[in-house]
Design a protein that fits this description.
This protein has 305 residues and is of the alpha+beta class. It has nine helices and 14 strands. The strands form five sheets. It has a six-stranded mixed sheet with strand order 11-6-1-2-3-12, with helices on both faces. Strands 4-5 form a two-stranded antiparallel ribbon. It has a two-stranded antiparallel ribbon with strand order 7-10. The longest helix has 20 residues. The protein is globular, with a radius of gyration of 19 Å. The termini are far apart.
Protein backbone atom coordinates (compact mmCIF):
# COMPACT_ATOMS: atom_id res chain seq x y z
CA UNK A 1 0.00 0.00 0.00
CA UNK A 2 2.83 2.39 0.88
CA UNK A 3 4.67 1.43 -2.31
CA UNK A 4 1.55 2.10 -4.40
CA UNK A 5 1.18 5.54 -2.82
CA UNK A 6 4.79 6.44 -3.64
CA UNK A 7 4.29 5.46 -7.26
CA UNK A 8 1.20 7.66 -7.53
CA UNK A 9 3.05 10.62 -6.03
CA UNK A 10 5.86 10.15 -8.53
CA UNK A 11 3.38 10.15 -11.42
CA UNK A 12 2.00 13.47 -10.19
CA UNK A 13 5.51 14.85 -10.48
CA UNK A 14 6.00 13.56 -14.04
CA UNK A 15 2.96 15.62 -15.05
CA UNK A 16 4.52 18.67 -13.44
CA UNK A 17 7.84 18.07 -15.16
CA UNK A 18 6.22 18.04 -18.58
CA UNK A 19 4.20 21.06 -17.54
CA UNK A 20 7.13 23.42 -17.10
CA UNK A 21 10.58 22.08 -17.90
CA UNK A 22 12.06 20.33 -14.86
CA UNK A 23 9.33 21.11 -12.41
CA UNK A 24 9.94 18.34 -9.94
CA UNK A 25 10.23 14.60 -10.48
CA UNK A 26 8.93 11.54 -12.30
CA UNK A 27 8.25 7.83 -12.07
CA UNK A 28 5.70 5.13 -12.70
CA UNK A 29 2.07 4.70 -11.68
CA UNK A 30 -0.78 2.25 -11.82
CA UNK A 31 -4.48 2.35 -12.74
CA UNK A 32 -3.65 3.16 -16.36
CA UNK A 33 -2.25 6.61 -15.52
CA UNK A 34 1.23 5.75 -16.77
CA UNK A 35 -0.20 4.60 -20.09
CA UNK A 36 -2.11 7.89 -20.52
CA UNK A 37 0.94 9.96 -19.66
CA UNK A 38 3.17 7.95 -22.01
CA UNK A 39 0.63 8.37 -24.82
CA UNK A 40 0.39 12.12 -24.32
CA UNK A 41 4.16 12.60 -24.16
CA UNK A 42 4.55 10.51 -27.29
CA UNK A 43 2.16 12.90 -29.06
CA UNK A 44 4.20 15.87 -27.82
CA UNK A 45 7.48 14.30 -28.94
CA UNK A 46 9.05 16.00 -31.96
CA UNK A 47 12.77 15.21 -32.30
CA UNK A 48 15.32 17.41 -33.97
CA UNK A 49 16.90 16.01 -37.15
CA UNK A 50 20.20 15.58 -35.36
CA UNK A 51 18.56 13.52 -32.59
CA UNK A 52 18.38 10.58 -34.97
CA UNK A 53 22.06 10.99 -35.86
CA UNK A 54 23.42 11.23 -32.35
CA UNK A 55 22.45 10.12 -28.89
CA UNK A 56 21.10 13.31 -27.31
CA UNK A 57 21.08 11.79 -23.85
CA UNK A 58 23.58 13.15 -21.37
CA UNK A 59 24.85 10.93 -18.60
CA UNK A 60 22.71 11.02 -15.49
CA UNK A 61 24.83 13.63 -13.72
CA UNK A 62 25.93 15.79 -16.66
CA UNK A 63 24.63 19.38 -16.83
CA UNK A 64 21.96 19.98 -19.47
CA UNK A 65 20.51 22.92 -21.36
CA UNK A 66 16.91 23.40 -22.47
CA UNK A 67 15.52 26.03 -24.82
CA UNK A 68 12.01 27.13 -23.87
CA UNK A 69 10.07 28.81 -26.67
CA UNK A 70 6.72 30.54 -26.36
CA UNK A 71 5.37 30.74 -29.92
CA UNK A 72 2.77 33.29 -30.98
CA UNK A 73 0.87 31.11 -33.45
CA UNK A 74 -1.97 32.44 -35.57
CA UNK A 75 -4.19 30.80 -38.23
CA UNK A 76 -2.36 30.56 -41.55
CA UNK A 77 0.86 31.85 -40.02
CA UNK A 78 3.88 29.83 -38.90
CA UNK A 79 4.27 32.16 -35.94
CA UNK A 80 7.22 33.74 -34.17
CA UNK A 81 8.70 33.28 -30.70
CA UNK A 82 7.19 35.68 -28.18
CA UNK A 83 9.45 34.32 -25.45
CA UNK A 84 12.86 32.61 -25.56
CA UNK A 85 14.52 31.34 -22.40
CA UNK A 86 17.60 29.12 -22.14
CA UNK A 87 17.66 27.00 -18.99
CA UNK A 88 20.92 25.41 -17.84
CA UNK A 89 20.83 22.87 -15.02
CA UNK A 90 23.87 21.60 -13.13
CA UNK A 91 23.05 18.69 -10.78
CA UNK A 92 26.47 18.73 -9.11
CA UNK A 93 26.44 22.38 -8.07
CA UNK A 94 22.64 22.17 -7.66
CA UNK A 95 22.15 25.41 -9.57
CA UNK A 96 19.93 26.46 -12.45
CA UNK A 97 20.05 29.54 -14.68
CA UNK A 98 17.26 31.06 -16.76
CA UNK A 99 18.59 33.34 -19.52
CA UNK A 100 16.05 35.38 -21.46
CA UNK A 101 16.92 36.22 -25.06
CA UNK A 102 15.28 39.45 -26.30
CA UNK A 103 13.36 38.62 -29.47
CA UNK A 104 14.87 41.66 -31.28
CA UNK A 105 18.46 40.57 -30.59
CA UNK A 106 20.54 41.02 -33.76
CA UNK A 107 21.97 37.65 -34.78
CA UNK A 108 23.43 35.99 -37.84
CA UNK A 109 20.96 33.62 -39.53
CA UNK A 110 23.13 30.98 -41.14
CA UNK A 111 20.42 29.57 -43.44
CA UNK A 112 19.82 33.03 -44.93
CA UNK A 113 23.48 34.16 -44.71
CA UNK A 114 22.38 37.47 -43.24
CA UNK A 115 21.79 39.32 -39.98
CA UNK A 116 18.26 39.54 -38.65
CA UNK A 117 16.23 39.52 -35.43
CA UNK A 118 16.42 36.50 -33.15
CA UNK A 119 12.73 35.63 -33.49
CA UNK A 120 13.01 35.49 -37.29
CA UNK A 121 15.22 32.40 -36.93
CA UNK A 122 12.02 30.47 -36.24
CA UNK A 123 10.25 31.98 -39.25
CA UNK A 124 13.13 31.01 -41.54
CA UNK A 125 14.12 27.66 -40.06
CA UNK A 126 11.54 26.51 -37.52
CA UNK A 127 12.72 24.90 -34.32
CA UNK A 128 15.82 23.50 -36.04
CA UNK A 129 16.97 26.94 -37.18
CA UNK A 130 16.15 28.51 -33.83
CA UNK A 131 18.19 25.96 -31.87
CA UNK A 132 21.10 26.42 -34.27
CA UNK A 133 20.98 30.23 -33.96
CA UNK A 134 20.78 30.17 -30.15
CA UNK A 135 23.74 27.80 -30.01
CA UNK A 136 25.71 30.13 -32.26
CA UNK A 137 24.75 33.23 -30.23
CA UNK A 138 25.66 31.79 -26.81
CA UNK A 139 28.33 29.30 -27.92
CA UNK A 140 26.73 26.47 -25.94
CA UNK A 141 24.99 23.28 -27.02
CA UNK A 142 21.22 23.07 -26.63
CA UNK A 143 20.35 19.55 -25.51
CA UNK A 144 16.56 19.82 -25.45
CA UNK A 145 13.77 22.19 -26.35
CA UNK A 146 10.20 22.74 -25.19
CA UNK A 147 7.92 24.70 -27.51
CA UNK A 148 4.66 26.10 -26.12
CA UNK A 149 1.84 27.69 -28.10
CA UNK A 150 1.30 30.99 -26.24
CA UNK A 151 -2.46 30.98 -26.92
CA UNK A 152 -2.70 27.56 -25.32
CA UNK A 153 -0.44 28.69 -22.48
CA UNK A 154 -3.51 29.95 -20.64
CA UNK A 155 -5.00 26.43 -20.67
CA UNK A 156 -1.86 25.09 -18.97
CA UNK A 157 -1.99 27.82 -16.30
CA UNK A 158 -5.66 27.04 -15.66
CA UNK A 159 -4.85 23.32 -15.42
CA UNK A 160 -2.64 23.92 -12.38
CA UNK A 161 -5.10 26.30 -10.76
CA UNK A 162 -3.58 29.64 -11.80
CA UNK A 163 -0.50 31.51 -10.57
CA UNK A 164 0.16 34.18 -7.95
CA UNK A 165 2.30 37.15 -9.06
CA UNK A 166 3.42 40.49 -7.67
CA UNK A 167 2.45 43.00 -10.36
CA UNK A 168 4.62 46.14 -10.25
CA UNK A 169 2.62 48.19 -12.78
CA UNK A 170 -1.06 49.07 -13.04
CA UNK A 171 -1.97 48.50 -16.72
CA UNK A 172 -4.66 47.53 -19.21
CA UNK A 173 -4.02 45.32 -22.24
CA UNK A 174 -6.41 43.52 -24.60
CA UNK A 175 -9.37 44.37 -22.40
CA UNK A 176 -7.72 43.01 -19.25
CA UNK A 177 -6.94 45.42 -16.40
CA UNK A 178 -4.35 44.37 -13.82
CA UNK A 179 -3.88 46.29 -10.61
CA UNK A 180 -0.52 46.82 -8.98
CA UNK A 181 0.29 44.36 -6.20
CA UNK A 182 0.09 40.69 -5.35
CA UNK A 183 -2.75 38.77 -7.02
CA UNK A 184 -3.78 35.36 -8.29
CA UNK A 185 -4.16 35.10 -12.07
CA UNK A 186 -6.08 32.66 -14.23
CA UNK A 187 -4.78 31.59 -17.63
CA UNK A 188 -6.16 34.53 -19.61
CA UNK A 189 -4.83 37.20 -17.26
CA UNK A 190 -1.51 35.36 -16.86
CA UNK A 191 -1.04 35.45 -20.65
CA UNK A 192 -1.76 39.20 -20.67
CA UNK A 193 0.67 39.66 -17.78
CA UNK A 194 3.35 37.75 -19.72
CA UNK A 195 2.82 39.71 -22.94
CA UNK A 196 2.63 43.34 -21.76
CA UNK A 197 5.59 45.47 -22.81
CA UNK A 198 4.63 49.01 -23.86
CA UNK A 199 3.52 50.22 -20.41
CA UNK A 200 6.61 48.80 -18.71
CA UNK A 201 9.47 51.32 -18.25
CA UNK A 202 11.90 48.42 -18.75
CA UNK A 203 10.24 47.40 -22.03
CA UNK A 204 11.18 43.92 -23.21
CA UNK A 205 13.34 43.32 -20.12
CA UNK A 206 10.31 43.89 -17.91
CA UNK A 207 8.28 41.45 -19.95
CA UNK A 208 11.05 38.85 -19.78
CA UNK A 209 11.13 39.22 -15.99
CA UNK A 210 7.37 38.61 -15.78
CA UNK A 211 7.64 35.57 -18.02
CA UNK A 212 10.32 34.07 -15.78
CA UNK A 213 8.19 34.93 -12.75
CA UNK A 214 5.22 33.03 -14.20
CA UNK A 215 7.38 29.98 -14.89
CA UNK A 216 8.65 30.00 -11.31
CA UNK A 217 5.10 30.43 -9.98
CA UNK A 218 3.81 27.57 -12.16
CA UNK A 219 6.52 25.41 -10.64
CA UNK A 220 5.38 26.50 -7.17
CA UNK A 221 1.67 26.00 -7.86
CA UNK A 222 2.25 22.67 -9.53
CA UNK A 223 4.30 21.41 -6.63
CA UNK A 224 1.37 22.12 -4.31
CA UNK A 225 -0.99 19.72 -6.12
CA UNK A 226 -2.15 17.15 -3.62
CA UNK A 227 -3.88 14.66 -5.91
CA UNK A 228 -4.16 13.34 -9.46
CA UNK A 229 -7.81 14.28 -9.83
CA UNK A 230 -7.09 16.79 -12.61
CA UNK A 231 -4.22 14.94 -14.32
CA UNK A 232 -6.24 14.38 -17.50
CA UNK A 233 -6.98 18.09 -17.78
CA UNK A 234 -3.27 18.83 -17.46
CA UNK A 235 -2.38 16.20 -20.06
CA UNK A 236 -4.98 17.52 -22.51
CA UNK A 237 -3.66 21.09 -22.18
CA UNK A 238 -0.08 19.93 -22.65
CA UNK A 239 -0.78 17.61 -25.56
CA UNK A 240 -2.57 20.37 -27.49
CA UNK A 241 0.03 23.06 -26.91
CA UNK A 242 3.48 21.56 -26.30
CA UNK A 243 6.15 20.02 -28.53
CA UNK A 244 9.50 18.74 -27.22
CA UNK A 245 12.35 16.36 -27.97
CA UNK A 246 12.30 15.14 -24.37
CA UNK A 247 11.16 11.55 -24.07
CA UNK A 248 9.37 10.10 -21.05
CA UNK A 249 12.48 8.06 -20.18
CA UNK A 250 14.59 11.22 -20.21
CA UNK A 251 12.08 13.03 -18.00
CA UNK A 252 12.29 10.21 -15.48
CA UNK A 253 16.09 10.37 -15.65
CA UNK A 254 16.01 14.13 -15.11
CA UNK A 255 13.82 13.63 -12.07
CA UNK A 256 16.33 11.46 -10.30
CA UNK A 257 19.40 13.56 -11.10
CA UNK A 258 18.35 17.18 -11.56
CA UNK A 259 15.38 18.02 -9.32
CA UNK A 260 17.50 19.49 -6.48
CA UNK A 261 19.08 22.01 -8.89
CA UNK A 262 15.69 23.54 -9.70
CA UNK A 263 15.45 24.87 -6.14
CA UNK A 264 18.26 27.39 -6.79
CA UNK A 265 17.41 29.44 -9.89
CA UNK A 266 19.41 32.46 -11.08
CA UNK A 267 17.82 34.77 -13.64
CA UNK A 268 19.99 36.37 -16.32
CA UNK A 269 19.20 39.16 -18.79
CA UNK A 270 21.18 39.76 -21.99
CA UNK A 271 22.16 43.40 -21.81
CA UNK A 272 22.62 45.36 -25.01
CA UNK A 273 21.75 48.58 -26.79
CA UNK A 274 18.70 49.28 -28.96
CA UNK A 275 19.87 50.54 -32.35
CA UNK A 276 18.28 51.23 -35.71
CA UNK A 277 20.11 49.43 -38.52
CA UNK A 278 18.94 49.51 -42.16
CA UNK A 279 15.58 50.88 -41.06
CA UNK A 280 14.91 48.26 -38.37
CA UNK A 281 15.32 48.40 -34.59
CA UNK A 282 17.55 45.74 -33.06
CA UNK A 283 18.79 44.80 -29.61
CA UNK A 284 22.55 44.84 -30.25
CA UNK A 285 24.80 42.86 -27.92
CA UNK A 286 28.54 43.56 -28.08
CA UNK A 287 30.92 40.65 -28.61
CA UNK A 288 32.46 41.41 -25.22
CA UNK A 289 29.14 41.04 -23.36
CA UNK A 290 28.15 38.01 -25.41
CA UNK A 291 31.45 36.27 -24.68
CA UNK A 292 31.18 37.10 -20.98
CA UNK A 293 27.71 35.55 -20.83
CA UNK A 294 28.89 32.56 -22.85
CA UNK A 295 31.70 31.87 -20.39
CA UNK A 296 29.24 32.01 -17.50
CA UNK A 297 26.89 29.53 -19.15
CA UNK A 298 29.71 27.26 -20.26
CA UNK A 299 30.97 27.08 -16.67
CA UNK A 300 27.45 26.19 -15.60
CA UNK A 301 27.49 23.36 -18.16
CA UNK A 302 31.01 22.24 -17.18
CA UNK A 303 32.38 23.16 -20.62
CA UNK A 304 35.80 24.65 -21.34
CA UNK A 305 35.72 28.44 -21.83
Amino acid sequence: MVKMRKRKLKMKNILLLVLVLLITSGGLASYGIYRNVAKSINNMYEPLHRDSEQQNTAASHDPISILLLGIDERPGDKGRPDSMIVITVNPKTKKTTMTSIPRDTRVFIRSKNTFSKMNSAYTYGGIEGTVQTVEQLLNIPINYYIKINMEGFKDIVDAVGGVTVNNRIDFTLEGVHLLKGKQHLDGKTALTYARMRKDDPRGDFGRQQRQREIINEMIHEGAQLKSLTNYQKILTALEKNVKTNLTLDKMIDIQSSYKEAVKDVKQIEIQGEDKKIDGLWYHVVTDEKRQKLSKKLRRQLNLKS
